[in-house]
Task: structure prediction
Amino acid sequence: DGSYIITGKIGSGNLWGPGYLYVMKINLEGDTLWTNSLFPGIDYSYINSVGRTIKQTNDGGYIVCGEYDNDFNSENILLMKLNSEGDSLWSKKFGGEDQDWGIDVEIKDDGGYVVLGKSDSFGNWNSGERTYLINTNSEGDTLWTNIYSGLDMWDLELTENGYLFLCGVNGVIDNVGNVDEYKTVINKIDLNGFEL
Result:
């Protein structure tokens, strides 16, 4: 419809402080059409949530990828489905007991989603950064997850023939466990999570 959809956070002036996931729709002139502050509805002790990526779905609604935390010690990836007016239909969390962040989301032909994140909960700590990939159905239920150790991926693209491309950097670890250098990397992955 020629409008723009924006997501982020509203609340404290600090990205890591308390706040709600925020969605705003504006027209071509930048005038606000509607806004919504959203509660993930996952854990009522939650404190903070933020949207990092939002995309329009085939039904005219939206899918938001980001993260939420309920105690400032552990973040989980958040996937939230919205209707066309920005109201939450459902939300799902992914991750473990440590820090996990949502980076990007792609919409599959079958209406499901592929979520790109980063994880401190899973994988080998000695391998450096850990990319976390989650494949879900249209309701956000997990079909599979995979960890790609040593890869710091920040962009996800889904091709028409069903392949995923992850773009980021590969940290080369020195003999004491520190990142010695970074190299740009593009990984091709199929929809079963296997690197090609």
Observations:
- Residues 173 and 179 are 4 Å apart (CA to CA).
- DSSP finds no helices and 14 strands in the chain.
